Amino acid sequence: MTQTALILGARGRIGRHFTKALQAEGWQTRAYTRGTDMNAAAQGCALIVNGLNPPNYHDWRNLLPALTTQVLAAARASGATVLFPGNVYVYGDQPGPWDEHTPHRPVSRKGRIRAEIEARYRAAAAEGVRTIVLRAGDFIDPDSDGSIMDIGYLRRFDRGIVTTLGDPDAPRAHAWLPDLARAGALLAAMRADLPAFCDVPFAGQTFSTRDLAAELGRQTGQALKIGGFPWWLLRLAAPFWELGREMGEMRYLFNTPHRLDGAKLAALLPGFTPTPLDQVVAGVLARRQRAPARQGSAVAA
Fold first, then answer.
1. Residuewise pLDDT in 10s, the chain (301 residues)
2. Residue 209 — φ and ψ, nearest 5°?
3. Backbone phi, then psi, for 194, in 5-degree steps?
4. Cα–Cα distance, 294 to 298 (Å, whole number)
5. CA 197, 45, 85, 25 torsion: positive or negative?
6. DSSP assignment of 222-268
7. Which pTM does this prediction carry?
C-alpha cells in the first residue's frame, strides 16, 4: 500500500531533497501550503517531514516554538510520525564525538531554542507522538548555492581563496543533502520498529577547511590559498542586520572540532554509505560550472 508524506517547506532545500528521496522509495508526497490548516493537511499521512525553518534565523524565539506546536498537533490528529532534521547546536562546545547520548549543553541562544523544541518532541513520545530526529552538521546542497559550501568556504573561490570561518584545521560535521534525505526515507520505512522518540546522528562528511582546500586543489589543479572570513564586518552590521547578528552567535562552531558518531545509523541501516568527500566536491564544482554561485552572501548553515 502506497503511503503519503506531508512535506513542510517542500520548496526549500530540505523539503526538495526529502521529497525526491521519499518518492524514490515509493511514497506519495503532499506539499504543505503555509497558512493553511496543518491538521487537515496531515490527514491520511503516515509521515510529516518538518523542513520548515524561518530564513536567516528570523525570530526563532517565537516562530520555532509556534511551528512545533502546529506540527505536534498535526501528528496527534493524523497519527503520523514526525521526521525532524536536527542540528548540532544543542551540544554547544563540549568535546566530541557527539552521539545520541551526548548531553544537550547549548552555549548559544539558538542552541537553547533547539534544545527546548527537541525536549517537546521527546515529551510528546509519551503521549503517542512518534518522532525521528535525524541530526546532521552543516548542509551541502548540490542543487543551489545557499549552503555553507558556497556562501562560506567558496565565497572567494574565483580568486583562488578557500575561506575559513574559524580554525582551518578544525574537523567539522557536514551532510550532503541527498545522503541525508536518503537516510531519512529509509528510516521512515522502519519507523514502526524504532523507539517512539529516536535520535539518530548522521555522520555524513567530516572535514576541515584545510582538508577541503586540498581536495579542491587536487581536482582543479589550482594552488589555493586559505583566507579568513570578515567577521568584523558582521559585528559592525549586527545592530542593523538580523542575519549578521545571528551568524555572529554561531561563530564558536567554526572553532570547535567536532564530528557526529555514525554507529547508531550504521546499526539501523547497515547497507547505507555516505557519498565520499571527493564525489561531494566534484558535484559542487560541476554545479558551479553550470551556474556560477552568487558572491557576497553570508549565512550559517
1. 679 999 999 999 999 999 999 999 999 999 999 999 999 999 999 999 999 987 777 788 888 999 999 999 999 999 999 999 999 999 999 988 999 999 999 999 999 999 999 999 999 999 999 999 999 999 999 998 878 899 899 999 999 999 999 999 999 999 999 999 999 999 999 999 999 999 999 999 999 999 999 999 999 999 999 999 988 887 787 677 777 777 888 999 999 999 999 999 999 999 999 999 999 999 999 999 887 655 444 333 3
2. -60, -40
3. -95, 160
4. 10
5. positive
6. ---EEEE--HHHHHHHTTT-HHHHHHHHTGGGGTS---B--HHHHHH
7. 0.93
In angstroms, the CA 49 to CA 276 distance is 26
b vs e for 90-113, b when ≥16 Cβ sit within 10 Å of the residue's Cβ? bbbbeebbbbeebebebbbebbbb
Alpha-carbon distance 192 to 172, whole Å?
Answer: 32
| Nearby residues of 166 by Cβ (< 8 Å), 6 or more positions away | 229, 251, 253, 254, 255, 256
- Max distance between CA atoms of the chain, in angstroms, equals 57
Copy the grid coordinates of residue 253: 562552531
